[in-house]
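Z., the sequence and structure:
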Amino acid sequence: MQELDIAFLGMVDLTVDCGVTGDVKHADVQKRVAEVEAAANRADVALGAVAGTPAHARKLIADGYRFIALGSDAGFLVSSVMPLIAEIRAADTAPDADSETSCTT
């Protein structure tokens, strides 16, 4: 059997497994995280997780994590689109619901 190279904690998945979806600070979730961290450290297996902010990444590094994903593809997509949406809303160029529009074919 091959050895495990990394134990990557999917926090949202873990919250679902613990029955507290989305509550990463729940005591049951934190207990499971501590158990995985301790087992990984005993086995000399690298720990990994997703960091949503630079501060969270620094905390993971301080806690001994060696593989850190900085956000997710969906998160990056949303954060890149939000300024565009804000700009469109600020321009307020949408036609009024009462105005007539025409379409020619």
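The first strand starts at residue 6 and ends at 9. The two ends are 67 Å apart (CA to CA).

Let me know what you think.
H.
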